[in-house]
Amino acid sequence: FLGLRLRRGVSLAAFARTFGRSATAVYGEEIAALKRQGLLEERAGYLRLTNRGLLLGNVAFRAFV
Question: Which has the closest alpha carbon to 28: 43, 12, 17, 44?
Answer without folding.
Answer: 12
